[in-house]
């Protein structure tokens, strides 16, 4: 080849590389500053860690006492369907646009800048509050009578240290915690069945005895109306239990081969969590009465856990300590996740020009250290529990978190609807997407309707005469005016409230899919089928 031809080829290649880089920078700008060292195993288990937390091990007792055995099963099943619909939409969109804190950047890309701004800062508001660190102080009272502030300080330092190192290190820690939780859940299911079937020496067979106390409990009124109130109140609180499932797309920018990893994790994480949740709650209804006074007034530590109540009644002494230990890891994992969410939300906002640019700075490990400082500053809020009833603080924070979860589920549905509309207007089909899930065009509307309904009715008990409680009302509804005011503010500043379908930049996304193909996972054979449990 002549020198002239080589020069021309070099120039063409250079232009192509520049165009390719500009496509990535347009949508995926600043993502390369983060370390892409996680894989499907990590993000899958991070989601599991978020799901199997204090909501299952502690709060399920209160849900059982409120709704009754059949009521709680129906609540977990129905909310699980809403989560499934939301999960499929989130995964399908994230496979096309895998970015850090995908929901924030996707809402900016598919809906409007004002929506992305509002969602980003409301997520900051919800995740910087150290709700689970307050729970740590309560959990430790099972073993120690030390002032809760001591444990908040100790474990707060542990959380900070965990988040300051490589994201891979964080992923491995959460993977270990996730394995512990899966083993505990399997152990609880097996132990519960043994207790129920009379396998414990000196204990008679229970069967469905506790279902005879009443399939549904009532609240405020001993009537069908009271039973519906109890059922719907439990439905709203069940949202908190499924909170971690959406974690599969949050770290998309820090995953090697993010599209295939998200696709695999989305399918396996939900199936794993939904089946294990339903089995665990079903067994719980068999071994604990919904009329039990202990679960009706939870203490916040293992002493009030419905699983511990069942084991104590059966004469099993060791497992309560094991449960409290794993519940402790659950609270620590959730605190870790909150710090991570806050820092990545700030990073995403800064990458869109909606937060100061210095939040984009990373250290040699690919960690956005300035963004990390913000949630760390708010960790001392957890010391509130040292001077107040810790269970009250925990309930307050839990309600705030649940309402924010519903806002995120609503947003995921709207993003998917807007993406589908833009694809139709611009001539793209579902076959053009890198990965698809069955029924998602309808799932997005299903998830949108019921997520919005749960958000609107989140504090409905406050409207029943004589039962208004301001902290409950505030935590259930404060996020709605906060979102509206933030969105209105940024919309006025930028004079942009809704992006037209034809203006959505789909070309850059589909070009990126073509330019960065990802290898398929090898088929599972032999012992590798066991990896379905954790990977």
TrEMBL record:
Domain named Amino acid permease/ SLC12A: which ranges? 42-496
Superkingdom of origin organism? Eukaryota
Where, by residue number, does the polypeptide cross the bilayer?
A: 43-65, 71-104, 149-168, 175-195, 239-257, 269-288, 322-347, 368-390, 396-415, 435-456, 468-493
Alphabetical list of Pfam families matching this protein: AA_permease
From the UniProt annotation, give the residues forming the signal peptide: none
Q: How does it sit in the membrane?
A: Multi-pass membrane protein
Which family is this sequence assigned to? Belongs to the amino acid-polyamine-organocation (APC) superfamily. YAT (TC 2.A.3.10) family.
The protein's name in its UniProt record:
Dicarboxylic amino acid permease
Q: What is the lineage of its organism?
A: Eukaryota, Fungi, Dikarya, Ascomycota, Saccharomycotina
């Amino acid at each position: 080849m002549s020198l002239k031809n080589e020069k021309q080829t070099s120039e063409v290649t250079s232009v192509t590389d520049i165009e390719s880089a500009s496509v990535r920078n347009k949508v995926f700008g600043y993502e390369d500053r983060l370390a892409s060292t996680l894989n499907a195993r990590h993000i899958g288990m991070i989601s599991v860690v978020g799901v199997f937390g204090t909501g299952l091990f502690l709060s399920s007792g209160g849900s059982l006492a409120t709704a009754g055995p059949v009521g709680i099963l129906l609540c977990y099943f129905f909310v699980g369907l809403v989560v499934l619909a939301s999960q499929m939409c989130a995964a399908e969109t994230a496979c096309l646009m895998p970015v850090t804190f995908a929901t924030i950047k996707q809402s900016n890309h598919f809906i409007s800048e004002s929506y992305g701004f509002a969602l980003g800062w409301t997520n900051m508001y919800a995740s910087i509050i150290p709700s689970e660190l307050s729970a740590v102080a309560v959990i430790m009272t099972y073993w120690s009578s030390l002032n809760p502030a001591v444990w908040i300080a100790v474990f707060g330092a542990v959380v900070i240290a965990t988040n300051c190192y490589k994201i891979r290190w964080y992923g491995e820690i959460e993977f270990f915690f996730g394995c512990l939780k899966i083993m505990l859940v399997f152990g609880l299911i097996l132990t519960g069945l043994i207790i129920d079937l009379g396998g414990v020496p000196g204990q008679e067979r229970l069967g469905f005895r506790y279902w005879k106390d009443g399939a549904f409990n009532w609240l405020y009124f001993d009537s069908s109306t009271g039973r519906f109130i109890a059922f719907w109140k439990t439905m709203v609180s069940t949202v908190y239990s499924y909170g971690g499932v959406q974690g599969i797309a949050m770290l998309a920018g820090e995953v090697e081969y993010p599209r295939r990893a998200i696709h695999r994790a989305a399918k396996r994480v939900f199936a794993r969590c939904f089946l294990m949740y339903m089995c665990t709650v079903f067994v719980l209804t068999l071994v604990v009465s919904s009329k039990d006074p202990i679960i009706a007034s939870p203490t916040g530590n293992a002493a009030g856990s419905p699983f511990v109540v069942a084991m104590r009644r059966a004469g099993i002494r060791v497992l309560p300590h094991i449960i409290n230990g794993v519940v402790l890891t659950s609270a620590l994992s959730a605190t870790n996740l909150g710090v991570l969410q806050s820092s990545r939300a700030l990073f995403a906002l800064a990458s869109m020009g909606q937060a100061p640019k210095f939040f984009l700075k990373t250290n040699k490990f690919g960690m956005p250290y300035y963004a990390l400082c913000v949630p760390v500053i708010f960790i001392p809020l957890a010391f509130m529990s040292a001077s107040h009833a810790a269970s009250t603080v925990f309930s307050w924070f839990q309600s705030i978190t649940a309402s924010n979860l519903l806002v995120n589920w609503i947003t995921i549905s709207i993003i998917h609807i807007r993406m589908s509309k833009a694809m139709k207007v611009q001539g793209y089909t579902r076959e053009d997407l890198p990965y698809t899930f069955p029924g998602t065009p309808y799932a997005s509307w299903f998830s949108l309707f019921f997520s919005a309904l749960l958000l609107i009715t989140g504090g409905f008990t406050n409207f029943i005469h004589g039962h208004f409680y301001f902290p409950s009302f505030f935590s259930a509804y404060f996020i709605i005016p906060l979102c509206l005011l933030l969105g209105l503010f940024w919309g006025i500043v930028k004079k942009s409230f809704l992006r037209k379908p034809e203006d959505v930049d789909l070309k850059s996304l589909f070009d990126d899919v073509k330019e960065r193909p990802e290898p398929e996972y090898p088929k599972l054979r032999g012992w590798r089928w066991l990896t379905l449990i954790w990977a």
